[in-house]
Amino acid sequence: MKKLLFIALVLIASSATAQDDNLFTYDKDYTSISLGAGLMRYYGELPLTANDKIIPSLKPAYTLRIKKRFKNSLGVALGATHGEMHLYTGINDPYNFKSQITQGDLSVVYHLDDGNIINRGANISPYISAGVGYFTFDPKADLYDANGMLYHFWSDGTIRDMEETEANELTASLLERDRKYESDIVDSVSYDESGIAIPIEAGVTLKLGNLVYATLFYRYNFTNVDHLEGYSIDSKNDAYSYAGATLTYNFGAKTSTKRDWENYGDIDFKKFETEDTDGDGVPDFDDWCQETEGGTEVDSHGCPKVKKEEAPVEEETPVKEDKPKEIRSKVGDDGN
Fold first, then answer.
1. Taking 80 as the threshold, does the pLDDT of residue 112 lie above it?
2. Where are the strands (E) in the chain, listed by range?
3. In the Cβ-directed half-sphere of 243, how many Cα atoms lie within 13 Å?
4. Model-level pTM?
């Protein structure tokens, strides 16, 4: 009976805690692939002016990531990102740029759904990561209008087709910036259009199904370069951020059509229907009284029969019957 109660508790507990996961298990080691998109933003010495807004400085980026998770919490992610950075600092400011950027990186990931902080396979689980990457960039500036006229930025806030001089005040024509970034930026100091990045990332995964989940993330990339925008105005290195979402397919999750009781294939449940531990002739499944001593006569529930005590038989004392006395009449021979 104790064994049966134990098995029943195991089955009930597994059903209560696993719910739909009784058809789904996670490998401790698994591989996943993610595709995503987001917005990239530049951080550097070029300030945002009063004429600039945050939204125009955000440009799209796309990412591919393959991740291998080890044990309960740690993983390694190999990623590739391609996007664009942009900054428009004002109509009369030549320091504007747009740059294509491509990055590959390797990161160590720490998952909080390790079974201690958050249950493994939880619907919502955060993570953090840090790594190292290599990136290339190609800054471009908008220096010419649609007709190929070089911009000249005048102190009165206008753009003209001639240098700002007294002689050109009456003859210089006004130009409009077309915001097509067609020109390579050439600084006074030569620089390589590549560098090392240290990506720090935080995110949260949202379970969409047993094999698919979405991830929302924010990544900040520290770099060792000061020319992301093509200029070196101060000695501080530039940086850029990347925020977005990915859709992930998990190759390490396994599905099964088995129900809870089928997952205990190594247990012979039929044996429990016929097993008679105490050998009293009543199977344990129906035995209300386990561990009955051998040779004890039991009832249909496996419990010892109660013997009724027989009342002592009293010996009957013979009753002496009085024989009727013969009354003899002295009757003569003649009847008198």
1. yes
2. 24-26, 30-43, 59-70, 74-87, 97-111, 124-141, 152-153, 159-160, 183-184, 194-207, 212-223, 239-250, 253-255
3. 4
4. 0.63
